[in-house]
Amino acid sequence: MTDSVEEMFVKSGAVLKGHFLLASGLHSPVYWEKFQVLQFPEYTERLCSMIADHFRGQDIQVVAGPTTGGIILAYEVARQLGVRGIFAEKEASGERAFRRGFHISPGERVLIVDDIFTQGGSIREVIAAVEKLEGEIVGIGVLVDRSPQKVELGIPFFSCLRTEAIAYKPEECPLCANGVPLVKPGSSQPSK
């Protein structure tokens, strides 16, 4: 398979056009539906291989991701690195925590993975959960970095693809101004 990263997303139907409400609260005319690409094991394996290869040799002991897409990615990157793969879930407090008996020992070397990076909310929550357990964060790997500007987290960062992100604050969104229905991804109903 010789598809580029972008071709994998396009061929799988993962790049959607319209008017979308992103998890960050921003609006965008483009949405990257990662589950469309993650449904293909060969694409998932290749993308995770890029992340694993980038961080190989960093003595990673555990790979952690946020629910939901991060579960698949943490498992596959961990499988390729020969280490454990775990995930952090949202608590009622809004914070993420490692449940289901998952643990990180103090000083354990952790690679954090996620699917689509826009403003880094999910990544920051996993960082906080790892730091709470005194794990040592070695790096962050994502499938697509669509952040409007480079976000500095103070941790080595790798993305399989960096793409231009068009995103608007709701009050400045031209799609809203033109009456284009706002869709919350994963839902067939408009959000407004």
Descriptive notes:
The chain is of the alpha/beta class and 192 residues long. Helix 4 links the parallel strand 3 (62-66) and strand 4 (84-90). Strands 5-4-3-6-7-8 form a six-stranded mixed beta sheet, with helices on both faces. The protein is 29% helix and 27% strand.
List the helices and strands and how they pair.
Layout: H1 5-11, E1 15-21, E2 27-32, H2 34-38, H3 41-55, E3 62-66, H4 69-81, E4 84-90, E5 96-97, E6 109-117, H5 121-132, E7 136-145, E8 157-162, H6 174-177
Parallel strand pairs: 3-4, 3-6, 6-7, 7-8
Antiparallel strand pairs: 1-2, 4-5
Helix pairs in contact: 3-4
List the strand order in the largest sheet: 5-4-3-6-7-8
Discrete helix count: 6
Shape: globular
Rg over C-alpha atoms, rounded to the nearest angstrom:
17 Å
The profile of the biggest β sheet is:
6 strands, mixed
Overall CATH class of the domain at 41-164: Alpha Beta
Which structural category do the helix and sheet elements fall into?
alpha/beta
| Helix-strand pattern | HEEHHEHEEEHEEH
The fraction of residues assigned to DSSP E strands is 25-35%
Q: Report the count of strand segments.
A: 8
**Helix amount:** 25-40%
